[in-house]
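Notebook, p. 212. Picked up where the previous page left off. The plan for this session was modest: take the two constructs that came back from the sequencing core last week, fold each one, and keep the raw output in the notebook itself so nobody has to go hunting through shared drives later. Recording the first one now, exactly as returned: residue sequence, then the structure token string.
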Amino acid sequence: MAYYEKVGKDKIKLIVNIGRDAKGKRKRKTKTIKYKTKKEVELELAKFVTEIQTGNYITPEKMQFTKFVDEWKEKYGKKQLSPKTYETYLGYINKRIIPTFGHLRIDQVNTFHILNFLDELQNDGVRGDNKEGGLSSGTIQYYHRILRNIFKRAEEWKVIKESPVKNVKKPKVVQRPSQVYDELQVNELMSALQKVNIKWKLIVSIAVTTGMRRGEIVGLTWDDIDLEKGKFYVKNSLTYTKEDGHLLKETKTKNSVRTITLAPSVTSLLKKYKNIKNKEKLSLGEKWEGGELFLVFSQWNGKPMHPSSVTTWWSRFLERNELPKITFHELRHTSATLMINRGNHMKLISARLGHSNIGTTMDLYGHALESADEKIANEFETLLQKKNNI
């Protein structure tokens, strides 16, 4: 016998009797679904009966962890996460999470399993690259985030009663102080850039003078630039995933959408560069593959650059010119630090960087603020000494 009953404002419980146990107690299987029309509910009930009769129905709490992750991918991961974040999640899931929890049922994973897993990530040898120590605190926190997401969905979908990650505190991230260039090193950098192609000279100059992210720079189109006013209108970011290829998407937060005034020398260089790009596009004719999208920085045929190509070029450039090694992203930190040291207001710096709030800027650049504060104290000391000499 199969039937259904309403169990909430918008939920229906499907019920199928499957006989009696050895003690004569009635056995049944149930499944709760969102409320639909009567016809749809009856169809779902019929499908549920068929699943049970053919042996394809698995009680949710008896589901293998790997099976649930497959459901999570289809019902949440692909739909709710950005393509790049989803690809990153899959890398972490396949590398360590599935090998650790894949043999268990979803209901068998408990809080101690999670705690032990996160602890083991700190052990020597876990990196797999012969380097001492475990994974970085940031990477461990990322594993915690993914597990919390997966098990939260399992709890929401009534597959388990409570997430085993719920009472596991988020691991603390030990921030490595960003390596940044001081003004003298920036001058050395700018001198070295005089010897490179105008495209790369602009990419680096923009990173230093605007603090823009790598994806935002390679995602710029000529429509995003007002060369007369000398302004960037930052709206998009270029990402790349193996499944979807290049994607030009809106920046990650509404605060990331911003207007940035350019240094006059950068505007002048951009005008020269645009003339070069216009001629290149015209000469390519049918070989142009950029479509209607005219990116400021692209491959020779107009197709988007792979964002990682910037990182590769930057690393080789530093080595050739014997400059201090910092990551390309740390040019963003360099820009912020220079702005702070020159006494600019934190609200203006936060807006220029596209932070969600001024607190984010304060947290990230506390070390630079401390240095700036020491500079202020020294300036007062100079003032006091002059006063005492009168």
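Okay, moving on. Second construct, recorded in the same format:
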Amino acid sequence: MRFNKILFVFICLSAFALISCRKDKSVHVDSGFGYFPGALGHYVIYDVDSTVYDPFKNDTVYYKYQLKELNESEFSDNEGRISVRIERYIRYYNAAQSYDSIPWVLKNVWYSTLTSNTAERVESNQRYVKLVFPVLRLISWNGNAQNALGNQLYQYQMVNQPAGLGILHFDSTLVVIQRDETDLLNRRYYMESYAKNVGMISKKVLDVYDTKIDTIPVVNRIKGGVYMNMSIHSFGKQ
């Protein structure tokens, strides 16, 4: 009888330990907050190529530059939430100089806010919901939920996958398709990709149009719009 009691207690303790272990594992599930780092001093430098199609001048203008985004300081926003001031610096390409010899010039200031289930950025006075948590493939949300620009469906196309850009390799990345639309007059494609503990590593914007309906794809008869490609050059902490 005594042995049976001891065995019963042992079984109960083992079951409790197993349940506790399972609970601990569920508590430590990675929701993906590392894709949106807010550590002060963290910076990312991007190589940017941009093409602007001007319908009024019937001209095409090309821009090439580097952009640096720096998490400069923290503050409380108008809802009392901890937010990060992002200083954005620019230096334009010069064939006669290397980028390292060209000084950075402050371009503008944006800011970001990380909540329990969203990653938000205020860009040019508009707040966008860049990511939602937990990060799961094919999850979709309204990226304009915090502004008045109208509903815009964002969706995770790929999550937690290794990827490389140039000489840089990242163990965990995700891709957000923000817009992907085609009709007889317009082609719009917006995409951002992120790496864990780095933040955004690339961005593509293709927003072009024609004024006449044709069966030829719009990208082959562009009247106006913009194409921009932004790719990480380096990152670190200062």
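Notes on construct two before I forget. Confidence is low (pLDDT under 50) at residues 1-26.
Flagging for discussion at group meeting.
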